[in-house]
Design a protein that fits this description.
By secondary structure, this protein is an all-beta fold. The protein has strands at 3-7, 10-12, 18-25, 34-39, 46-51, 58-60, 68-73, 78-83, 92-98, 103-104, 108-112. The model has no long low-confidence stretch (mean pLDDT 97).
Length: 114
């Protein structure tokens, strides 16, 4: 059975860092480009970052460029999002997503607050 399981969220102070992980199982992980999305309270879900299947190309939302880094380890079937210089406006539930098959993980909560 196909699964995407996010982890690594939590409460962090402004200026801090977190690393999110998304572990895939039940499918050939390396075949798929993947993305991180986020949804803040009362707002629509938005694209944060995208990475191609082999990891050779990435793109970012303007709001996170220079602060967040998307990466993947296909040998470990895991997608990552390194988040630095976190701001209160980064508070959201973060989801990993495979667009070609419209498959979402369950999400992990990130709260940036002092």
């Amino acid at each position: 059975q196909m699964q995407l399981v996010e982890s690594g969220g939590g409460l962090v102070q402004p200026g801090g860092s977190l690393r999110l992980s998304c572990a895939g199982s039940g499918f050939t992980f390396s075949n798929y480009a993947m993305s991180w999305y986020r949804q803040a309270p009362g707002k629509e879900r938005e694209l944060v970052a995208h990475i191609t299947s082999a990891g050779g190309s990435t793109k970012y939302a303007d709001s996170v460029k220079g602060r967040f880094t998307i990466s993947r380890d296909n040998a470990k079937n895991t997608l990552y999002l390194e988040m630095n210089s976190l701001k209160p406006e980064d508070t959201a539930v973060y989801y990993c997503f495979i667009a070609t098959i419209k498959y979402w993980g369950q999400g992990t909560q990130v709260i940036v607050s002092s």
